[in-house]
């Protein structure tokens, strides 16, 4: 987007100045929020002393992210701040003003100094204080200059140009920055993205990255702020758009707001809201079984408002299921003909939660999925269903390999097929190591869709959703969403089963608009329900009986929160 802007004839150094000036304004506001208001009420004298002594320590690298940093230092100094630039990776001569002027004069008339160099020169000409951060070996406590205590620490070491693990002096600088901000309880603000975090993937090389309280994100949200480690390092994100941007250029769309649900028609009955068939909850001979997976899934199907549900699970669990969900009808998972008849009647089939992984379970999976395809039903495939799909894909000799996967692909062209792996399951589906998937989740979800067809969720922090849009002309177009809500309390057993239930439950309700039944809406609703259980904000209009907190949140707590969020987003008419 930046390059397109420059190609239209806009000045790149002008943009850098604009970026830095706007960031300086935000920094002043953030300072006020953190220090002045709190101290003004606690101690008037402290308030006054600090109000005239704002101090910022700005850590700059040698690229344009560092250029932003030099200019921020310049603008804050202009505004009366005491500033110190910590220059990382700079040789002494890089900072020698006379020497730099000499070089600048030698530069060919047609050549221009880089933006970062110009920024540095502006700051040095304004006599901004600076200090080189030198390689100290392993003893960071001896580093000079960084002990200068500031109210705000700014990370302008690396932005989107980071392409390898920070080593040596850079690694030391990041670790020293984190230490000094944490021990001073000072505000850590990252320019564009916390240094060490990869903008396109959210990966942290070698576990070292700036731990920011706030990230001032320039031009467009970086994908890496929202998936993998991104949320753990970036703190709250403030957008500084700078230039008009086109979302059609984005790798993904960040979603945080659910599509409104229409109210139900008075003149309706249970058949108006669909019949979901849940197939799972098996008990393999000699094992304790996995009835809970199907039970949790079934409960959330009904919490989203589906009209009817049948659960095909092992008979051993029928009693437990009916105790928790008397609304359900049941059938034995192994009653092949009975289940196939029900597939005909169902509006959506969801399969895999606790289905089991042995050969018998695989045979059930193949036969039920094929029946659903023959009957042209929307399908949700989760957990052990994904396991079988991966086994078929990997197996060289299985007679159903090409058949089932090809049929599924074909089916997904005209009917909704939703597949919902976490990283481990995606790794197996792609026959890759889990860290390969984790390190580039965006690529992984695209590869899943290319291999198997259908719509996908790649679960985890910042769940990704890929939806295939069937186009008027031949073919389809994939669109990717990043779920910007949800919390770590949801990292517990059974949450995935709940999600598969939400997906099936919404798909079944044909009275809802397509936008309210699509996969990213289900993922969002599930995450918002998780947040409603831990978040005490106005948005959720509590009902404090709903609050649980992250630690101890269980999948079985979700249905009540799902209903609460559905109420919040339903149009009243
Ligand atoms: N007008 C503008 O130019 C604007 C720029 N903005 C800001 O610019 C950054 C992106 O700047 P860029 O220079 O492309 O990249 P970085 O500053 O992030 O990184 C600079 C170089 O650092 C090297 N590098 C990468 N990884 C490492 C590492 N682990 N250790 C050491 N060095 C590393 C790499 O160069 P090499 O030649 O050494 O490979 C990088 O190129 C953007 O994020 C904004 O903050 C604003 O958008 C305003 C307009
Ligand atoms: K940065």
TrEMBL record:
Cofactor annotation remark: Binds 1 potassium ion per subunit.
Residues that coordinate or bind AMP: 459-463, 496
Residues annotated as domain YjeF C-terminal: 253-569
Domain YjeF N-terminal: 1-250
Pfam families linked to this entry: Carb_kinase, YjeF_N
Cofactor requirements of the protein: Mg(2+); K(+)
Protein residues bound to (6S)-NADPHX: 293, 354, 422, 497
Reaction equation(s) it catalyzes: (6S)-NADHX + ADP = AMP + phosphate + NADH + H(+); (6R)-NADPHX = (6S)-NADPHX; (6R)-NADHX = (6S)-NADHX; (6S)-NADPHX + ADP = AMP + phosphate + NADPH + H(+)
Top EC class of this enzyme: lyase
InterPro entries recorded: Carbohydrate_kinase_pred_CS, CARKD, Nnr, Ribokinase-like, YjeF_N_dom, YjeF_N_dom_sf
PROSITE patterns per the UniProt record, alphabetical: YJEF_C_2, YJEF_C_3, YJEF_N
EC number: 4.2.1.136
Keywords: ATP-binding, Isomerase, Lyase, Metal-binding, Multifunctional enzyme, NAD, NADP, Nucleotide-binding, Potassium
HAMAP family: NADHX_dehydratase
Family: In the C-terminal section; belongs to the NnrD/CARKD family. In the N-terminal section; belongs to the NnrE/AIBP family.
Assembly information from the UniProt record: Homotetramer.
Functional note: Bifunctional enzyme that catalyzes the epimerization of the S- and R-forms of NAD(P)HX and the dehydration of the S-form of NAD(P)HX at the expense of ADP, which is converted to AMP. This allows the repair of both epimers of NAD(P)HX, a damaged form of NAD(P)H that is a result of enzymatic or heat-dependent hydration. Catalyzes the dehydration of the S-form of NAD(P)HX at the expense of ADP, which is converted to AMP. Together with NAD(P)HX epimerase, which catalyzes the epimerization of the S- and R-forms, the enzyme allows the repair of both epimers of NAD(P)HX, a damaged form of NAD(P)H that is a result of enzymatic or heat-dependent hydration.
Name under which the protein is recorded: ADP-dependent (S)-NAD(P)H-hydrate dehydratase
Organism: Psychrobacter glaciei
């Amino acid at each position: 987007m930046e390059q397109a802007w420059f190609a239209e004839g806009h000045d790149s150094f002008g943009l850098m100045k604009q970026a830095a000036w706007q960031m300086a304004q935000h920094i002043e506001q953030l300072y006020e929020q953190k220090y002045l208001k709190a101290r003004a009420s606690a101690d008037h004298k402290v308030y006054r002393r600090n109000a005239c002594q704002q101090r910022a320590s700005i850590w700059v690298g040698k690229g344009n992210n560092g250029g932003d940093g030099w200019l921020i230092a310049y603008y804050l100094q202009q505004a009366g701040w005491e500033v110190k630039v910590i220059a990382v990776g700079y040789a002494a001569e890089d900072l020698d003003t006379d020497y730099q002027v000499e070089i600048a004069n030698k530069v060919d008339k047609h050549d221009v100094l880089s933006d970062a160099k110009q920024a540095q020169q502006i700051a040095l000409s304004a006599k901004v204080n600076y200090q080189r951060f030198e390689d100290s070996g392993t003893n960071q406590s001896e580093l000079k200059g960084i002990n200068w205590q500031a109210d705000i620490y700014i990370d302008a070491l690396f932005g989107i140009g980071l392409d390898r693990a920070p080593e040596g002096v850079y690694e030391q600088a990041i670790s020293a920055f984190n230490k000094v901000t944490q021990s001073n309880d000072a505000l850590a603000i990252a320019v564009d993205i916390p240094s060490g975090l990869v903008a396109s993937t959210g990966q942290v090389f070698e576990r070292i990255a700036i731990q920011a309280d706030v990230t001032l994100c320039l031009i467009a949200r970086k994908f890496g702020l929202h998936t993998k480690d991104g949320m753990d390092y970036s703190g709250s994100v403030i957008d500084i758009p700078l230039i008009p941007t086109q979302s059609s250029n984005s790798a993904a769309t960040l979603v945080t707001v659910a599509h409104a649900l229409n109210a139900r028609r008075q003149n309706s009955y249970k058949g108006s809201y669909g019949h979901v068939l849940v197939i799972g909850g098996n008990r393999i001979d000699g094992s304790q079984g996995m009835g809970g997976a199907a039970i949790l899934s079934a409960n959330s199907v009904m919490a989203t408002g589906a009209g009817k549900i049948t659960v095909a699970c092992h008979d051993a669990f029928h009693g437990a299921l009916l105790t928790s969900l008397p609304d359900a009808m049941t059938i034995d998972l192994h009653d092949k003909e009975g289940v196939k008849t029900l597939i005909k009647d169902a509006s959506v089939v969801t399969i895999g939660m606790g289905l089991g992984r042995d050969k018998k379970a695989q045979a059930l999976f193949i036969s039920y999925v094929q029946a659903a395809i023959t009957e042209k039903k929307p399908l949700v495939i989760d957990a052990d269903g994904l396991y079988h799909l991966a086994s078929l894909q990997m197996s060289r000799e299985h007679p159903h390999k090409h058949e089932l996967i090809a049929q599924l692909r074909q089916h997904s062209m005209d009917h909704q097929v939703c597949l919902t792996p976490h990283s481990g399951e995606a790794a197996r589906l792609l026959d890759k190591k889990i860290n390969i998937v984790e390190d580039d989740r965006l690529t992984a979800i695209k590869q899943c869709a290319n291999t198997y067809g259908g719509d996908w969720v790649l679960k985890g922090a910042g769940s990704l959703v890929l939806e295939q849009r069937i186009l008027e002309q031949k073919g389809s177009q994939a669109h990717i969403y990043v779920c910007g809500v949800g919390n770590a309390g949801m990292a517990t057993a059974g949450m995935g089963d709940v999600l598969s239930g939400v997906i099936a439950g919404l798909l079944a309700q044909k009275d809802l608009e397509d936008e309210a039944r699509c996969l990213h809406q289900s993922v969002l609703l599930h995450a918002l329900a998780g947040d409603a259980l831990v978040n005490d904000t106005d948005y959720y209009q509590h009902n404090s009986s709903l609050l649980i907190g992250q630690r101890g949140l269980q999948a079985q707590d979700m249905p009540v929160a799902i209903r609460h969020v559905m109420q919040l987003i339903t149009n009243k008419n």
